[in-house]
Amino acid sequence: MKFKIHRGTKEIGGSCVHIWTEKTKILLDYGIPLVEKDGSEFNIDKYKTLTIKELIEKSILPNIKGIYKDDKNVINGVILSHAHLDHYGLFNFLNPNLKCYLGRATHKIIELNSLFTPQLISIANPVYFEKEKTFKIGDISITPYWADHSAFDSYSFLIEADGKKIFYSGDFRGHGRKAKVFKWFTHHAPQNVGYLLLEGTSIGRENKLSKSETELEDDFVALFRESNKINLIYTSGQNIDRLVSIYRACLKTGKILVIDVYVAEILKELSEFAKIPHPSENFKGLRVIFPYYTSKRLTNEGNENILYQFKEYKITKEEINKQPDKIVMVVRPSMQKDLDNIKNIDGGNLIYSMWDGYMEKSSTKKFIDYLMKRGFTLYKIHTSGHADIKSLEEMVNALKPKAIVPIHTFEADKYKDIFKFPVVEVNDGEEITV
Ligand SMILES: [Zn+2]
Ligand SMILES: [Zn+2]
Questions:
Q1: Which of the pair, 37 or 296, is modelled with greater confidence?
Q2: Which of 214, 231, 359, 424, CA to CA, is 20 to 30 A from 26?
Q3: Which residues surround ligand 2, an ion (CB under 5 A)?
Q4: 0.90 cut: is pTM over it?
């Protein structure tokens, strides 16, 4: 068995690993880069007019035969670890005949993204896998392990062929709401692994220990308790762990949690897979707002039914205006027009609950500035979606690999100072025999 990391050995984002035997070829993830070569923000729109051939020449797309639209002999499959764009953002370039192996909830999230966000990515040929159930693609066996990560339905993978084993960590952590899943893994990790492809997002970035999602819940409780004004929270509508923390903090402090129709739809659809709060009789104090732009888009595209299903749980701007001290509301920049029409919230709290780096994005900056002008106080309550050093060490010690290969990191050279196992630093595009 051989493998090649096409992108990710020296950067976070654009993850793509090619693994093959004599008979079978697969890809693990096919993500969009987050940064350009000079470190600035990557924007695919800049390359819109280029052909696939030109994109390969510019190394925007990896040079792999059998994955693109015009390729005749397509490879045997692509496996997706989770629904973050840095892992699936280039899928539209793939040959539609290529089978995509992914979790059912992951596919659901990707479909919802196409309804609500500018990312119109569709999975033409899905095949669903289940956690800890080994499946085969040709002569390669793949076992997905459930991972604790900020994306719902995330996986690590054990890849076996020719009597050899590779383990791909994907994105993971040990301090989220699935901390127990990670604990379980450390006691049931596969053995005799050759190469461990280990993400290192937090290396060089975080303290040794990250706050747990439960500790974050306490931080929200403390802030909600002391405030007699509105609490707006800017967080990802897809960070289910975070939304659960916020909802639990609202229950403890008697606040009403207001989510918009986008977040409501995500929670409703994913409640099929796990017990998570969503607008229903079973979850008290959860109300739905219908933002102008989102409602307009859903209506224009013939998806009004998504709006109607939440009408029982609707909260109006007037109701928010009357009792801002009772309200915790999940917001994002596209809701500025709606906030304009809620006059009585000036001087409230804005809680930023995402990675600090996103604050540099111009839309985020503008949104925060807007609320600062309305007298809001900015708080940051956040913990990383990625493993801290302690959890990275726990994964390594559980797997006891023959060698660790850095991936999904800007700090590959620091691995050898952290881990007790041998580190093999490779370059993008370098072929490794297992
Ligand atoms: Zn991720
Ligand atoms: Zn990632």
A1: 296
A2: 424
A3: 86, 171
A4: yes
